[in-house]
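Need a sequence for this fold. Nothing fancy.
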């Protein structure tokens, strides 16, 4: 008998998250829950949850809906939703954008990761969290202070949650995975930045992507299907 799986994906309406959702809903014995601000059509094995992850209070109120109880052999959370933020130098950023980027890229995945680990602590099957990070976490890119700092925070949260799971023998497997450059609406936002607030604009305009969303989605799913092949928490699709 095939195993029954539950996948929870944030940012399932566009880009990488949409490609993940479209791939997963075709699999047998698989239920998918997708979170996004834009509405997504419900399907047989797909449940959309329309939510602005920037609104931490609404997220906290919906958290039990996002993590249902059930008899699954495999439960996976993919914290994929992310925002590049306002691309601007410190001194020119709006206060609202500073608050928003950390709400979407740090606070939302932190709340979701914590709730996932609380809900499925006693779950006996496989339980995996993949936080979609970025190589920007370890780079100094002018105009991207919020984005870069938010992904660095996500990496640290993931490393620490993995260590805690090991100390307490909870059986979670966590990854922070860099997806490489993918041609998605996020790249379009990057290319529309103002050159005086982002010295890498020309480089990003001519950057060759590492793969289409569908190709990168397959890599994310390979990692999830073969967690024991990947020892380190911090992973990069360009390396496998
Ligand atoms: N594209 C790249 O080259 C690249 C490179 C490195 C890392 N990444 C990372 O990969 C992940 C996916 O990126 P992508 O390129 O696919 O991005 P994208 O095309 O901009 O899509 C982002 C997804 O996140 C959702 N989202 C954004 N803000 C949200 C909010 N406040 N509440 C709920 N959902 C929200 C969007 O849905 P709605 O708009 O419907 O809310 C959308 O489904 C991100 O974490 C990104 O940082 C991407």
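Here you go.
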């Amino acid at each position: 008998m095939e195993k029954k799986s539950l996948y929870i994906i944030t940012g399932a309406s566009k880009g990488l998250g949409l490609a993940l959702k479209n791939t997963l809903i075709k699999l047998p014995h698989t239920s998918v829950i997708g979170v996004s601000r834009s509405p997504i059509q419900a399907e047989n094995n797909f449940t959309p949850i329309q939510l602005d992850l920037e609104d931490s209070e609404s997220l906290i109120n919906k958290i039990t809906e996002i993590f249902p109880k059930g008899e699954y052999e495999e439960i996976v959370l993919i914290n994929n939703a992310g925002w590049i933020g306002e691309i601007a130098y410190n001194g020119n950023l709006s206060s609202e954008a500073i608050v928003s980027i950390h709400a979407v890229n740090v606070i939302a995945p932190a709340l979701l990761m914590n709730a996932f680990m609380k809900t499925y602590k006693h779950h006996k099957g496989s339980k995996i969290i993949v936080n979609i990070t970025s190589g920007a976490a370890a780079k100094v890119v002018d105009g991207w202070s919020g984005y870069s700092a938010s992904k660095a925070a996500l990496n640290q949260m993931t490393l620490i949650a993995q260590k805690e799971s090991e100390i307490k023998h909870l059986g979670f497997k966590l990854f922070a995975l860099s997806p490489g450059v993918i041609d998605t609406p996020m790249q379009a936002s990057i290319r529309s930045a103002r050159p005086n607030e982002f010295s890498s604009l020309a480089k990003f305009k001519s950057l060759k992507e590492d793969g289409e969303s569908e190709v990168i989605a397959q890599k994310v799913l390979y990692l999830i299907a073969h967690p024991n092949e990947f020892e380190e928490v911090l992973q990069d699709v360009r390396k496998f």
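For context: The radius of gyration is 17 Å.
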